[in-house]
Amino acid sequence: MGNFPNIPVRWALFNPVRRNTEVILATELGIYGTTNFNAASPTWNAVNNGFANVRTDMLQIRRSDYQVMAATHGRGLYTSNGFSEGLSPVLSSFAPSIGKPGDTILLKGRNFTGTTGVRFGAASVNSYTVITDTTIRAILGNGGNGEAVVVTTGGEAALAGFTFCATPVISAPAPGACQGDSIQIASSAGASYAWFRNGAAIAGLDSSIATIQVKQTGTYTVRVRESNGCINTSTGITITISPVPSKPVIQKGNGDTLISSAASGNQWYFAGEAIPGATGQRPSPAPQGRSIGPLPMEAITYRSTSADASAL
Q1: Which domain, by its residues, includes 216?
Q2: pLDDT at 289 over 60
Q3: Domain containing 230 — which CATH number?
Q4: How far from each other are the two terminal CA atoms of the chain, in whole angstroms?
């Protein structure tokens, strides 16, 4: 705590303009402050200009202009503009009032010089440009419904009424299927849907369909309209439909050794149950307590990932 005296602290307040360095504390002997809070040993000084060394119980800050209020024990309320370093911003409008990631929003008002941040909902924009003291151009990133907020060295200005369009998400139980089969892909919730494969609209689908059965290889996207008017397109999901492999053949090698005609994709079974770890061309390891050699030949079967071989 540096040179801070041994007295109780009842409240702390960070300067929103210099959050990492400037802090004031409500103490038993008034207000103490530092401008090097991030140092290993901060330097603290009494900052009681305007009121006595009286017990201070609470500190609050007004968002619009960073005015600080101190509540004392028996001496009333005091205010200070010590945290404000500019004129209070005013946000009068923004357009459009609905947007998705990458969209441009123009904000109108005054006292935008010295802007340090712009956000919609709880999320900061990807980028912003202060065009003039009365206009800001912002590029949306992630965002949320609610307020548009402009932050400057003189305070914060907020205006409600923004609607954020979230990016739809497509889900699938697997990245593909075998030829002749299909895989179901589904969109996140919306009011209507338009499905695309490799950028081309999929014909014959009703706009109310949120899930589709896929039988062709391709990159699938969906454009979703929400009930609030938002329209946004998902990122693509690639589905691969693979040809069915040829039916494998099991041959007998030297002695009682068995071998699959498939170099990969094998799974060996004994008495109808998978042999754990037996995924090579030969059925190794053997079932627990058994060796491969003495197994009855009619009990050994083989399956690949998509085709079965007959029992020997």
Answers
A1: 170-242
A2: no
A3: 2.60.40.10
A4: 81
